[in-house]
Amino acid sequence: MNEKYKLLREQLPHGNAMFPLMIHDIESDCSFKERVGCHWHEEIEILVVTKGMGEIHIDNRSYSLAKDTIVFIPSNHLHSMTGEVGISLDFFAVVFDIAFLNSFVNDVIQQQYFNSVKREETVFTEYIIPTFDWERRVLCLLLEIRELFEKKETAYELSIKAKLYAIWHLLYVHSSKNRTTPPKYADYQIEVTKSIIAYIKEHYESSISLTELSKRFNLSVGHLCRFFKSMTKMSVVEYINYYRISISAELLKETGRDIGEIAVMTGFNNISYYNKTFRKYMHMTPSKFRQMIG
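Structure tokens predicted for AraC family transcriptional regulator:
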């Protein structure tokens, strides 16, 4: 699949009910600043950088990334990745439902080592530059999980689950207790940002104005724009266009619809503006993109 197309798709499968784990190997396109658009999901994600450098943004926190950096992303937290144009930023992500590790009964293991993390009473280290022995061990285990998933040899699922438990143990032993309540305003920003993103995804086919969003979410235009960018590292208009182009790329790939029709279907009433915006994100025209993936 074309890398630019993969980059713009935010909804990726994270395994299935029988084996709720997936590993995504990503070679991001260094012609983009935005490497992974702002999104969230129910599953836990543990990410390892394999090449290059950049930044990851989790809620309103940002961390520098380099080879072997490990990032733990809890369930339902906003996250995105950016990188300097021309600089590689490649990584793999182990994404899994916490139910994959849960006990079948609410025993002491479930209560102390899983429920406390889910409730964020226990906070795992979010950002790891492997230095100490336990951090290097986590890195080794993640690399082993990646290899097992690729090879899919006999009983690989069992071995992956065992290594995930080992990682969870190391993260728990070196975790901290959350003795402070997060500022209510920070939680409010996160939830409103999620609501705005959900609204954009639901209404991208229609005209969406900043005035409309400010009224809907009871915020001034200036305030909405400032905190949305602080959370997503993109302006509201950039995110709207980014998402519309991602959908139009999917339609160009999977349907034979006319380019002008696709532009209108994805909220672009002006074909010239659509072509200009498509070229900005994809560095080619829609027709060239269709030819390339055809």
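Residues 68 and 137 are 12 Å apart (CA to CA).
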